[in-house]
Structures are given as structure tokens and as C-alpha cells.
Amino acid sequence: MKRDEYSTLPRIFLETVQRWGLRPAIRYRSQERWIDMTLNDVRERVYRCTAALLAAGCCKGDHVAIMSNNRPEWFLADLGTLCAGAATVPIYSTLKQDQVRYIVEQSESRFMFVEDREQLGKIRHVLHDVPKLEKLIVFDPVGVILDNQVISFQEFLRDATGDHATIENRVLQSLSAIQSDDLASIVYTSGTTGSPKGVMLSHANFVSNIQDLKTVIDINERDIVLGILPLSHVLERCAGYYTGFLASGSMYVFTESMETVARDMGEIQPTIIVAVPRLFEKIYIRVMDMVKNGSGFKKGVFNWALQTGRSYFLESRSREVSVFLKQQYKLAHRLVFKKLHQRFGGRIKCFVSGGASLEPRIAQFFASIGITILEGYGLTETSPVNSVNYMGATRLGSVGKPLSSVSIRLAADGEILVKGPNVTRGYYRKPEETQELFDGEGWLKTGDIGRIDEDGFLWIIDRKKEIIVTSGGKNIAPQPIESMLTANPFISHAMLVGDRRNYISALIVPNFDTLKAWCLKTGLGDLTADQMVRTEEIYHKIQAEVLEVMAVLPRYEQVKRTVLLSRPWTVEGGELTPTMKLKRHVILKKYGSHIDALYRGDIKQP
Predict the structure, then answer these.
(1) What strands lie across the sheet with 444-452, from one edge to the other?
(2) How far apart are CA 482 and CA 370, in angstroms?
(3) Distance separating alpha carbons of residues 240 and 204, to the nearest angstrom
(4) Residue 472 maps to which CATH number?
(5) DSSP3 helix / strand / coil % (the chain, rounded to 5)
(6) Which of 84, 85, 99, 95 shows the shortest CA–CA distance to 118?
């Protein structure tokens, strides 16, 4: 696809079908076996979906919500909507009823695709609050009571009357009216603070990001993309789905769940995976646990191989690698790294990481074993990617260089400002928030603090609004320190507190699986989570782990005190966004009494 050759997502899709229509394009698991769909199969179903929407009265400029876990029908609903000239409104399947009602009502959606009975229940009982919602289409109608307003997806497709030629003509006529500046999607922010805002993204916004990403990620029709993140996540949608499947003809494979990812990687042998840092943290912790529990000989071989890989990586960045080190690295790969690569299927070209900061130690671990992680930086408001580490041009710890069509500069206070064709026009039905999003010169204010080094690489320091200012006047960015803590196998979640206090403390949710194994090994027995956080030996163990992590930081950034919490932080519990970011205001409110007691000295844990 040449830059500016195609201006809308449907036109890119049709060009891809024309080039590779007979190739398997989608793979999903059903009844314990993998099933393939070719691009021609996908186009046929997309056309029927578009025709059904048009028959139901869907018009150009309408909004259509999609609330489902990842499955092939998500693609069909999204592309069917886009081909009808309407805009999709993706909704995370993990959201609660009130959140779903708010998004459907605020977005003024006329139609809504939902996955199953459970998801339908979140909206069916509040239909009186969303009078503009006319029809609900259910992908999996098992146990669903159907009526004039609720219809199964298969029945809905049957409403696309006429033969193939008739339906195709109807769809192509719809496509001819779609312009690049037309709205393609309203994507609601995760809502780390306040109510979520609907980010308006046009076809041109997405297309600019697709074109830029194709120049920095070597992705083509021979690649296999394993979809792990929810398609409601704009990074997965743009990088994995649109750039891979839609624009490059890559096969897109749907995982059954996060629990089957390891199995799916082995069976599918993907070449590209888009993920958030938490996945890499879990892989790192799992590998290091295996090494820790292995024999002394295996530990020695692994540590030697890892050091060899690290030396090879560092030397290759600055000069020609010596013959001796090349031979050592080949041996390390044969003895250790090859086995790790097989865990990912053995054909990984690269991982793409975004959504949060990747802890440098973990990035270096993957680089040392010969697996490339292209860490980038973006926002929902920028479709989403602004910068990325390129293939063959990475700098660990940074988020790479700006995409070719994106301009980045720093404000006087270090805030990252962005301009480019990927930047949103604003928030839907929120003019005041839209005005606040841009500065006087039209630059988008990201709310992130960063720096740009002498070679043009961008480094993220922290969120502007999340900077902790101690009573001593020290400015502390919590996110990098929290990432360091959660990279420890004994810590699942951590949040720093200490704004206007005289030192930094942390709320910590331990990794109870790791702790349980440690308790059994040390003779403490099979304890519950509540018992663990009240056990003196465990408290001291976590404190020791925290102190070890903090050793590399200046004293004013080090965590002085901790509170161990027995309840995991979850999306359902309200502590995490669907993209696994901390909802700091929720956590501060929920555990405010713990924090106050901690600084008064009333908490003496255990």
C-alpha cells in the first residue's frame, strides 16, 4: 500500500482482498480445532453485515456499538459498520452495567452488537435510559430471549436480501460516499480519572498510523499476528488488526483466552504479537522462577548464557561483534535461548509493546535472549501511536523516535506535545474538554512528561498529573518505580503514595501464587491471602524484596514503608482500567484510611 493511495479503511480492506483473497486471513478455535477463513470469506460476510445494517436503516454518520470479547464476528461487525459509512463504538466486555449504559447513551449509538447473554444483560435492563438504541444483535444467542429489538447475528445477516451481485452493488454504493475525514470510531478512554471521554477518530487518523507503522514494522502477507489484547484496545485494533490483517494481508489468529496463550503460541507459531508490558513481566517472572528452582548446574548455564546475550546485544549496537563473542552467542542460543524461543512458537519476528512503560531490566532480558520488543508510545487521542523503536534501531528504555508523519516537542515544563494526521479532532459532545486538550498553537497536550535525547529518541518520565511532590519539594515519578516493583516475582501490583508527605510509601498486592510456593518451601504451611499479609515472616520477605529493588534509586525515591493488601486489584473491583492501568483516584479513596494510618504510625504490619 503506497502512502496516500487509499484514504479510508474499507478501501484498504478491499484492495487487500483483491490481492490475497484466497489466502487464509482469520484463524479461530472451535470445538477443539482451528478453523480458517479466507479474505474472500471475510468480504462475503462483511458485505452481508453492511447490507443488513443498511436494510435496518443505518445511515452514514450513525454510531454502532460493539461489546464482545475477541472473536471473528468482531471484525465482521466493525468492517460491516465502516462499509455502511457509520462509526464503531468499541466497549470493553469487562465494563459494568452503569459504564456500558453511559457509553451507549453518550455516544448516541443506534445499533449495538453484543457477544452473548451475559453481555446483553448489561444493556437490556437499562434500555429505557438509552432511547436512541434501536436494535441489539447477539453473536452467540444461546439462552437469549429474542424479540423485535433483540436479534441473533445469523438472523440479522439473513436480512441482507438479494443475490451476491445485488448486495455488492448496494455496499459499493455506500463505500463511494465515505470520505477520509469521516468519523470511523469513537473510542472511549479507560477512565483513570472521572468519566470516560469518547475520542473521535477519523479514517484519515487510522490510515496515517497504518501507513507509518508499515514503514517501521516489517509486516506482510506471510506474517501471523496472534491477537492477545482486546480489540477494544486501540493499540491492538490499529497495530494488529488494521495494520496486520487489514492492510498487509497477515493472518490474524484469535486466542480463546489469556489462559490459552501459551498453548496457542506453540500451535500457531506467530511472528508478531502486540501486548502490554504486564505480559512481558509475567514471562520474565516465570522464566526466572524456573531458573531459581533448577539445579545449580542449570542456573550456572543460564546465567552464563544471559550474560553472553547481554554482551552480544550491547556490543552489536556500537561496533562489529568479535568472532569469539559470536561463537559464544551461538552456543548460548543452542543451549538456552532456542528453548525459550520455542515457548513463543519459534518464529517470533517481534513483539510490539505499548499502553504503559516497559521496565528497562525486562526489555534488556528479552534483547539478551534474542527477542525484539519494539516499545512505542501513544494515546487513544493519537490513533494511537506517536513514536516507536524501529526494527534495527532500538534504544532500550526509550519509546523510540516519532513516526514519519508525527511531530513531537516538549513544553517548558517537559510535557510532551504532539501534532500530526493521527491526532483526534476532539472528544464527542465534550467541547470544553476538547478545548483543554490542545494548546494555543494546536498541539495536543499528552499529559505525559518526557525528554528527547541527542539522537532523537523519546523517553517517558511519567504522567504530568501523577507526579508526587513530597513535603520536602522532591518531584517523584511513580510509574517507573512501580514497574520496577511489579517486575519482582513476589509483587503483583504496587502503587506509590506520598504526595505532600515527607517520604514515599507503597500499597502492595503480593503475588499470592509465588508466596504460597515460598510458604510451603519454608515450612509456613498452606496459608490464605488474609493470613499471608498478617504473617511476620512474609512481611519481612516482601520488605526485603522491596529494599533490594530500591537499592539503585536515590534515597528520596525509595519506598520507606509498605502496606500489604490481601485483595487483588482487578477491573471488576474498580482498581484497574480495562487496559490494566491503575485507577489511582479509586485506590486512594478505597485505601485512604490505610494510608492515613500508615503515616500516623498506627499501622504496624503484621
Answers:
(1) 407-410, 415-419, 444-452, 458-463
(2) 26
(3) 18
(4) 3.30.300.30
(5) 45, 20, 35
(6) 95
**From the CB of residue 414, how many other CB atoms can be counted at a distance below 10 Å?**
14
Nearest to 376 by CA among 354, 391, 359, 403: 354
- Is residue 417 within 8 Å of residue 446, measured between CB atoms? yes
477 and 447 share one domain: no
Q: Which domain holds residue 36?
A: 9-178
Residue 115 resides in a domain: yes
Q: Are residues 319 and 373 in the same domain?
A: yes
pLDDT of the residue at 146:
92
Whether the CB-CB separation of 246 and 20 falls below 8 Å is answered with no
% of the chain exceeding 90 in pLDDT: 75
Q: In the 3-class helix/strand/coil scheme, how is 229-246 assigned residue by residue?
A: CCCCCHHHHHHHHHHHHH
Count of domains observed in the chain: 3
Burial bucket for residue 366 (CB in 10 Å: 0-12, 13-18, 19+)? buried
What is the β-pairing status of strands 426-427 and 198-202?
antiparallel
Q: What is the pLDDT of residues 550-584, one digit of tens each?
A: 988 888 889 999 999 999 999 888 899 887 889 88
DSSP 449-515: EEEE-TTS-EEEEEEGGG-EE-TT--EE-HHHHHHHHHTSTTEEEEEEE-TTSSSEEEEEEE-HHHH
- Residue 89, burial from CB neighbour count under 10 angstroms (0-12, 13-18, 19+): buried
Whole-angstrom distance, CA of residue 375 vs CA of residue 280: 12
Identify whether 606 is preceded by a cis peptide bond (ω within 30 of 0): yes
Whether residue 448 is found in the same domain as residue 481:
no
In this structure, is residue 270 part of a structural domain?
no
Of 178, 198, 226, the one marking the end of a domain is: 178
Pairing assessment for the beta strands 251-254 and 224-227 based on DSSP bridges: parallel
Residue 285, number of CB atoms within 10 A of its CB: 20
3-state secondary structure of 69: coil
| pLDDT single digits (tens) 177-219 | 999 999 999 999 865 455 789 999 999 999 999 999 999 988 9
Check: CB of residue 507 under 8 Å from CB of residue 546: no
CA distance 481 to 357: 11
pLDDT in tens, 32-91: 999 999 999 999 999 999 999 999 999 999 999 999 999 999 999 999 999 999 999 999
- The answer on 304 and 398 residing in a single domain is yes
Is 238 domain-assigned?
no
CB 133 within 8 A of CB 57: no
Which of 463, 472, 435 is CA-nearest to residue 582? 463
Return the H-helix or E-strand segment holding 253: strand 251-254
8 A C-beta contact, residue 160 and residue 48: yes
Q: Cα-atom radius of gyration of the chain, to the nearest Å?
A: 25
Same domain flag for 433 and 500: no
Residue 605 lies in a domain: no
The reported pTM is: 0.85
Is the domain of 371 the same as that of 458?
yes
Here the CATH number for the domain that contains residue 111 is 3.40.50.12780
Reduced 3-state DSSP string for 536-548: HHHHHHHHHHHHH
Q: Tell whether 369 and 334 lie within a shared domain.
A: yes
Q: How many CB atoms lie within 10 A of CB 42?
A: 22
* Residue that finishes a domain, picked among 152, 178, 204: 178
Are 446 and 575 in the same domain?
Answer: no
